Amino acid sequence: MRKNIIAGNWKMNKNLSEAIQLVSDLKTELDGKTLNAEVIVAPPFTSLETVNSLIKDSAIKLSAQNMHSADSGAYTGEVSVEMLKSVGCSYVILGHSERRTIFGESDEFINEKVIHAFKNGVTPILCCGESLEERENGTTFSVVEKQLKAVLKNLTNNQIEKIVIAYEPIWAIGTGKTATPEQAQEVHAFIRKLLAEISTPEVAENVTLQYGGSVKPENAKELLSQKDIDGALVGGACLKADSFRDIILSV
Ligand code: PEP
């Protein structure tokens, strides 16, 4: 049985006091509720340690938004997996389209990070997805296939089974345009089939596949009811505790 996971990517939002407020509000909103999904928050690096201390007594898990693939060294401005572990991260978002497009991260670099995260016991939430141009060209499947084959290179079946994959069409991120449930399901089914080829059908059945791209309380239920959609990676709508709660409770 695969896990449902709802993760909130705070991106470069919330200073320390705002982060304390948001996570405290989220805990209050979820208090006493039956959760059918694991809940993850991914605040900026500056708030990880504090948020970790606030969620220790709750079911909420902690993720970072990025990391470097090296253990340590002369990488000004970067953060290592060991540092993330030391402040309580059990997940790390890797290969987000903003990292790929704004900061030029390649599939090869993302693959190094994925391998390094697993080696150190941190689970990657690995993002993939096509641009608007690629969707309109009809190359969505080949783009996603190329990305996934490259970033999953040299992973064991055991690692593939544990990874979380977030399909995030770039044209739907932060734009208010959501993929229709059918469009999202079609790509998720394709990803699961691809995972079965890369590993085994049994492994593929156990991989959590999230959809990301303008998920909101109003569209979450329909998206999350699709057969191969096991959760969501949420940007904008996770910055308010009540809207993130409504998405979490749609599972
Ligand atoms: C994201 O950043 O991963 C994301 C899906 O953002 P939004 O929900 O704002 O589109």
Notes on the structure:
By secondary structure, the chain is an alpha/beta fold. An eight-stranded parallel beta barrel has the order 1-2-3-4-5-6-7-8, surrounded by six helices. α1 (16-30) runs parallel beside α2 (48-55), α7 (140-151) crosses α9 (181-198) and α11 (217-224) runs parallel beside α12 (241-248). The longest helix is centred in the C-terminal third of the chain and has 18 residues, at 181-198. Helices cover 45% and strands 15% of the residues. The chain is globular, with a radius of gyration of 17 Å. Phosphoenolpyruvate binds at residues 9, 168, 173-174, 212-215, 233-237.
Give a concise summary.
The chain has 251 residues and is an alpha/beta fold. It has helices at residues 16-30, 48-55, 81-86, 97-103, 107-119, 132-137, 140-151, 157-162, 181-198, 201-205, 217-224, 241-248; strands at 5-9, 38-42, 61-64, 91-94, 123-128, 164-167, 208-212, 231-234. The two termini are 15 Å apart.
